[in-house]
Amino acid sequence: MEDSNAALAAHARAVEAGADDDPDRRGERLVQAAEAWMRAGETAHAESLLTAALDLGGEVRGIARSGLAELLSEQERLDEADEQLDALWQERPATPIPYRIAAELFLDHGDAEEAEAWIEEAVGHLDEDELADLPQRTPEDGDSLPDPALVLATRWRVRDVLNLPEDELDRTVSSLVDVEQLSGEVALPDAWENPDAPTEVRVMYWPRDEVAAAHERWPDLVTSADPEQVSRERELDNRTLSELGYARIEMVPMSTAKLAHFVERTGGDPDDHTVLGACVDERAEQTTMITWPPDRNDPCWCGSDSKYKKCCRNAEFEPEPVAVSSES
After folding, report:
1. How do residues 183-240 score in pLDDT, each as one tens digit?
2. Which of 98, 189, 194, 267 is buried most deeply by CB count within 10 Å?
3. Which residues contact 18 (CB under 8 A, 6 or more apart)?
4. Which region, left, alpha or beta, applies to residue 110 given φ > 0 means left and ψ of -120 to 50 means alpha?
5. SS3 label, residue 202
C-alpha cells in the first residue's frame, strides 16, 4: 500500500472523530488518532492528543505517556522525553507495552543497560497464559504479532546487544519471528484491536476548472496546475484509504473562493490538515458530495466527460526508478 500525507490525514481525522462518538473508549481512540496524525506528519496535533489521553488517566495513561516520550525523543526534545519516562517509571502501569516502548527508546539511544531494566519490567507484566500459548504460534498465523511476542523480541535485541547468553524466552521468540527485522520498531502501539474503526471518510477534491487557480494561490497545498495530475493523486489517495478499510469515501468539491473565505474568516492556515478538514466539513453541508468509486461505466468523478473505466480508474502509482549501470 502506498501512503500519502493527504490520505493519512483524512484517515486521522476520521479516527479522531471516533473519539467523540465513543466516550467510554475516548482515551484509546485519542492514542490511535495520535498515531495516525504522526504518520501524516502532524506531530504537533499528535502531541496534543496524547496529552489529552494522558489527562484522562486509567489504563490508557501509560500508553499515552510512553507514546509522548517517543514523540518528544524523535523531535530531539530529550529532556522532556526523560521527564515522561521518569514519570512512567514512578506510575508503574499494569500493562507491558509502555515498558517495551521505553526499552526501545533507550536501546536506540545506546543505553542497553537501562533498556534491560525496562524490558524485564515489561516481561513481568505479561500474561502467563499468553506466554504459554506463544510456542504454539507459527508464522502462518498472520503478520500481526501479539504483545508478548513483541515484548520478547525487544528483550532478545537488548540481550543481544549486552552479549547475554540465550535463554528459553529468547529461543521461544526467535522460533516465531525474525527478531532482527523488528529493529527500531517503536511506533505507538496498536494496543487495542479496533473493530469499531470508522468505515466512512470524507475527503476534498478540486474540480478541474479550479485546479490552476488553487495551485497559483496555494502551491504547497495544490502542488500542480495540471488537472490530470491532481485528479490522479486524488484517485490514488482514495485507493490508499480503501486499503485502510474505508468502505465508503465521500468526495467534497472544493472551490478557491470557498477556501479563501474560510481562511480569512477563521484565520487558519490551509496547509494545516485540521483547518482544511474543518473547511471540508463546512463545505459538505453546502454542496453535493460524490461517493467513490463510481461504477465503471458512470461518468468519472473528476469531470472529464469520460467514463470512469477510461479515466481515473486507470491511474497507476509511479513506478520505482530503475538504476542504470554506467558499466558497459
Report:
1. 544 444 444 445 456 788 999 999 999 999 999 999 999 999 999 999 999 999 999 9
2. 98
3. 29, 33, 196, 197, 198
4. left
5. strand
Which of 255, 253, 252, 267 is closest to 218 using CA atoms?
A: 255
**What is the rounded CA–CA span in Å between residue 123 and residue 186?**
17
| Secondary structure string (H, E, C) spanning 89-125 | HHHCCCCCHHHHHHHHHHHHCCCHHHHHHHHHHHHHC
The answer on 160 and 43 residing in a single domain is yes
Contacts of 172 (CB under 8 A, 6+ apart): 134, 135, 152
Per-residue pLDDT of 28-62, as tens digits, reads 889 989 988 998 889 999 999 999 999 998 889 99
Question: Looking at the domain assignment, is residue 173 inside a domain?
Answer: yes
Q: Are residues 211 and 177 in the same domain?
A: no
HEC letters along 17-85:
HHHHHCHHHHHHHHHHHHHHHHHCCCHHHHHHHHHHHHHHCCCHHHHHHHHHHHHHHHCCCHHHHHHHH
Q: Are residues 245 and 137 in the same domain?
A: no
Q: Please give the tally of structural domains in the chain.
A: 2
Task: Look up the domain containing 283 and give its range.
Answer: 200-314
Question: Residue type at 262?
Answer: F
One domain for residues 82 and 204: no
Query: In this structure, are 120 and 219 located in the same domain?
Result: no
Same domain for 144 and 34, yes or no, is yes
